[in-house]
Each structure stands twice: as C-alpha cells, then as structure tokens.
Amino acid sequence: MHRELKLPLTRIFKTVLSYSAMAVLGMLLSSKMIEMLLARSSEPEPLSLLKDSLMILACILLLRLVWQQLLHRDVPRNNLSGYGKKLGRLFSVLATFILIFSAASIIYRVNTAEEIHAARMQAIVDLKIRQISDWLKERESDAELLQTSDIYAELYQHWHTDPGKKTLLLQRLEQFNKIKGFRASSLLDPEGNLLWSSSQLPPHPALQITLQQAIRTQKIQRFGPYLNTLAQPSLDFIAPLNTKDGAAPFIILHSNPANWLFPALENQPVPSQTSDTVLFRQEGDQILFLNQPRFSKAPPLTTRISISKPLLTSRFLSNKSPFNAMLRGRDYRNEKVMGIGRAVPDTDWYLICKMDQSEIYDEIIKDAIWISLAGLLALFMARASYVMLRQQEQLVLAANTRQLQNERLQAVKLFSNIADNSEDAIFAKDMQGRYILINRAASRFVAQSVSDLLGKSDYDIFPPEQAEMLVKTGRIAIENGIVLTQEETLDLPDGQHVFLATKGPLYDEKGKIIGLFGVSRDITERKQAEIVLRESEERFRAIVEQSLAGIYIIHRHRLNYVNPGFARIFAWDDADTLINMGDIGHLISAEDQERVHQLIRLAESGEISDVHFYFTGVRQDHELIDIEFYGRKVDNKGHPALIGLILDITERKSVEQTLTQQSEELRQRNAELERFNAAMVDRELDMIELKRQIKALSHNTTISSDDLSGTTP
User: Fold this and answer.
1) Which site among 168, 340, 493, 577 is 20 to 30 Å from 432 CA-CA?
2) Which of 283, 276, 289, 217 is nearest to 250 (CA)?
3) What stretches pass through the bilayer (predicted)?
C-alpha cells in the first residue's frame, strides 16, 4: 500500500544533508585512524577496503532508519513491551563498545610509540656501549704494547747509570704519546714515586691502590676518569714493565676522554630534541656524572647527586627493573623522562639513554585527538539513531495511553476486591488525616461500617493517646517520604490488639504526596505466644545460670557457651572471658589433652552418641582439679556440636581417697589384731599344755614319793 509523506521537502532535504555530512566525516576520521594504527603495516589497503565496505553498510542501515522516521506508519501495540529497555541496553552496549574501542586504540598507539622509542634507545645504548668497550680495549692494547716491549724495560735498567739511554727512553715515550693520541705519560718507580711526567703534573693521591693491584696481577690497570690538578678529565692506563731484575716500574698513559669518548656519547644517531646519553658511576652514596649531559652546563666529572634522590639514575642502580626495561622517572633537570640503562662491561660505569616524556607524548596526543573525534562521531551517530527510535516508541506510547488508562481502572477494581477480601486492615488517609479508603477487615476490627469510617480521623475512632501516636507516625512517614514498619497496640471493642503496621506516603501520578497508605496485620496471638516463649526461656536460663554444675556447648573444640557455674569451677570470674578464649585446651592438663580431644572429636562426628569420662582440669590459678565430663551430640545452627555438663569431683575424689586410706589402715590394724589374737590363743594353749604337763609331772612325783616311803628299812 502506498504511504504519503507527511513532512515538507525542506526538512527531508536538511535531514539528508546532515546525514551525508556525518557519513563523510566518519569516512575521513576512520581512514585517519586506520592510517595511525597501521602505520607500520606494509599492506594497509585490504583493511581500508574492508573498513570502507563496513562504513557503507552502516550508512545504508542508518539511512533506512532515517527514512522510516520520516514516514508515518502504524506500529502494532503489542510490539511495545520491553522495547524501550532493550533499545536502551542496545545503545549502552554500542556506546560502551565505541568507548572501549577508542580507548584501546589510544592505548595501542601509546604502547606502539613507547615500543618504538624504547627500541631506538636500546639500539643507541648498545651502540654507545660497544663504542666505549672498543675504545677502552684499544687504549689497553696500547698499554700492553709498552708492557710487553723489552726495549722500554731495557732502557729503564740504565735510568740511573746512563743518561743517554734515559733520554732515549723519554723520547720514545713522547713519540708513543703522539702516535697513539695520549695526552701525556708518566714514569713511576716500583714504590710509586714519580720519576718523570710529560705533563709535569703529580700523580693522583688515590693511584697507589691501583698500583698495588697492578703489582699483584702484572696486568694493565685502569684508573679514573678523574679531574687532574688542572681540572681536566683524565683516564689513566697503568702498565707495569716486565723487568728481569728487581721490581717493575710503571708507565702511566694519560688519556683525555674529552678528545673522543665524550664527543662520541654526545653524537645522537637519531634526531631528537631531548634525547641524551649519560655516563655515570656510583661513589658511595652519590652518583658522579662522568660526561657532560646535553642540557647541563657543568663540566664533566663535576656533577654529583645523592643516590637517595628518586631520579632515573637512582632507580637504575636500585636493580628494581629487569634488563633492558623501560625506566620512568625524573632526570637531573627534574623533568619527566623515559630511558634504558646498561652497565658498561669490565667497568664500574653505567650508561643511560633517555628522552623527555613530553617529546614522546606530543606526537601521540595528535593521534589521540583524531581517534577521540572518530569515537565521538560514532557516539553521535549512535545517539541520533537511538533518539529517532525512541521518538517512534513515544508515538506508540501515545497511541496506547487510553488502553493503559482502562487497564488502570481494571487494576483499581481488582485492588478493591483484593483489599476487601484481605484479613489485614488496609486503609488510606488524606493530608488532613481523614480516611479516604478502608477495607472490610479494618471496619471489622473497630466494629463500625465502612461508610461510617470514611471521612473520620483517628481521634474519632481511638483513645486520645493512641490516636496521637497514630497521627505522629503518619506525619513522620509523610514528611520524610519513607515507609515505616512498627508494632502498634490499640484498644478495640473486643479488647487490646497488637498490629504490625506498615505506612508510607501516597503519591499521585505527578509524584506529589497526597496522603498516607497503610497495611496493619493483627499479630496479637503471635505476641502472646512470644511472651509465653520468652518467659519459658527466661526460666530455663535462670535454671542454667544458677546451676552449680558447669553447662557448656562445644563446637570444634571451642567453647560456644558456658554458664557461670562452668566459669566458677575453673576459678574464672566471667563466663564471657572463657568464651572469647575459645579453645578448651587451656582448661585441660597436658597429659589428658590428647585423650579429651579425641573423645570430643568422636562425639561430634557421631561415632559415639554419648560421652562420659574423667580428666584433670587446670584452674585459672594453675591449680589442678578433677573433672567429670558428660556430653551428647546436638545440632547447633546447622553444625554438629557437643552439649553437656561438667562436675568438679576434686572434693569427692579427696574424700574417696581418704576413705580408701582409712579403710586400708583399718584393714592393716585388723590384720595385726588377728595376728595378736592368734598369738594370744597359741600362748594360752601352750600354758594349758604346760599346766597339764606340770600337773602330770606333779602326779608322777607324788607316786614316786609314796613308793620310796614304802621301801624304807
């Protein structure tokens, strides 16, 4: 079916021109971004072609959306559900993607630039170190030529005896300096005393240490660089001569690093406004710059900085960065720089190539601006599409307003039915506190009809004190714009009731507060049950707290609860202190701890249902007591635990030991008494036998006497 345009041609023309301008700008910005991101790619054309194709496709889709916006068409109402939220989420995802892509592009550009400059500085460092090493090896080879030459050693043998050979030696040294490019040379005796110097300068005071090292090793030694008495930089090469007789003298070749070494460091192979190469070494707690930095006016070997200062050289010496890692910090000018450092082989020197961060990031900022503009354009185009689609949604919303109003009326009727059938009191008040809505449950509580309650206030229904409380609570909810939930006790015709009331401000369609709504649930029976339960708990707690036995709850060998009786048994004043200490190990003697822990573990794991044992406890005053332990496994908040009681049986054990001791003593005394009685019985029997024998003997003696008396003449 043909659709007629409802907009004038001028608006259509402006829309098309605006869209065309945005599309062309997007093409240009995207091309610029591809050029920046793929600057090092040898074949960027395929990616550019793919980019242009995607851009054309996006333009076609966007133009189609714009054209649909210009046309009036009916949109089915059932397509509205959730459309706005989905569209908003889609725009959020698209905007997030654009922002992430733009940020990632900028970060990639920053990392790429840093990697390029790091590679350049690394190449410069490698080049400079190789130049320094080659120069030092060349100077040392010159010194080795003197050391290994028999001519110089033979001429020195006649130093004190033949003036002609002495002069010849000095002439050869002067000629050697000119040929090899040394500034001067000196001759020292084996004790290190100066015999001759072409520069007429005394040797450095610290030279003796290096001379001793040369004597020990018989190898070329290097001293410096340092400033001589004329404030000139000097680097000495010490060559001990190979003499056959006596100690070896020394020839010192004085080289001026400013002639070749320092200029070589100043030469930068890559053009840069801030690039600089610094050669330095550590001397105690200070860093000495050996050459003159590019932006420093101080001569070589005069700039010293404390190693404690957070500069780039200090960070390099701290060894906190890996080999060839990019370092960030401040240089001697207090400028932010980035650099790479290396140690010069076979020396105590270090070399750092650095560059100001401002120079590195200046070129990045320009690219970041182009990338940001491309991202903003993409966001603008996405936002424009989102706005047009939202306008279409608003048209659909306007078309469905009447249907929504009808649905609201049906919802009001449904709410009225729900409220009338609810067991909770549901009501609403106006700003003057008069009831404008009340359900049948609320009217039933106050024993009045709904028609009688409408238009009344709380003062017309409840006692003055309770009405004032209700009005005050409603005023707080309205003034603060919050929903309050609290318990309210009211006197009703059938007695006192407790309600759990929820109240909050009532808003109109414009968000203005027009009154107060409330829902009250009768919780009288629940409150009465809570009172009964609380009284029962208080009685149980009183029994537990006043018990002489120690009552406990143990979970994983830690005390979760103990009563005061438990604390008194172990001589603690406060049960909470024991609970906070947790572990029960400090209440058990050392010899019983393993056994007690094992029994408690078995009880908690359910391997044994009840546990009953004895152990030796330790009171707070370290006194040992005898404890009888009863326990049973229970469930404590979803975890296995042990509950039970303990008894202090120290006195009972003492009484039992006393009774046992007295019983043993009584048994011993009974045994002794029995032995004594047995002995007495045996004695009596012996006495009886003795008496019998005496009696028998006496009888026999009488008979014999009679016989004797009868035979007398």
Assistant:
1) 493
2) 217
3) 12-29, 49-67, 87-108
For residues 479 and 230, what is the distance between their CA atoms, to the nearest angstrom? Answer: 89
Q: Which residue is associated with the tokens 């050289």?
A: 313
User: Which of 327, 325, 346 shows the shortest CA–CA distance to 337?
Assistant: 327
Checking if the pLDDT of 496 tops 50, the result is: yes
Report the range of poorest mean pLDDT among 243-252, 292-301, 413-422, 690-699. 413-422
Strand 250-255 and strand 184-188: the pairing is antiparallel
| Per-residue pLDDT tens over the stretch 11-53 | 545 555 565 555 555 555 565 555 555 544 444 445 554 555 5
Cis peptide before 269 (omega within 30 of 0): no
The pairs formed by 321-329 with CB atoms below 8 angstroms and a separation of 24 or more are 324/122, 326/114, 326/118, 327/352, 328/357
And the tokens for 105? 């592009």
User: Looking at residue 346, what DSSP letter applies?
Assistant: T
CA distance 8 to 583: 87
Nearest-angstrom CA–CA distance, 567 and 558: 15
Q: What is the pTM of this model?
A: 0.47
Q: How many CB atoms lie within 10 A of CB 29?
A: 19
Residue 291 and residue 299: Cα distance in Å, rounded? 8
Over residues 540-567, the mean pLDDT reads 83
**What is the Cα–Cα distance from 143 to 218, expressed in whole angstroms?**
12
Distance CA 423, CA 442 (A): 9
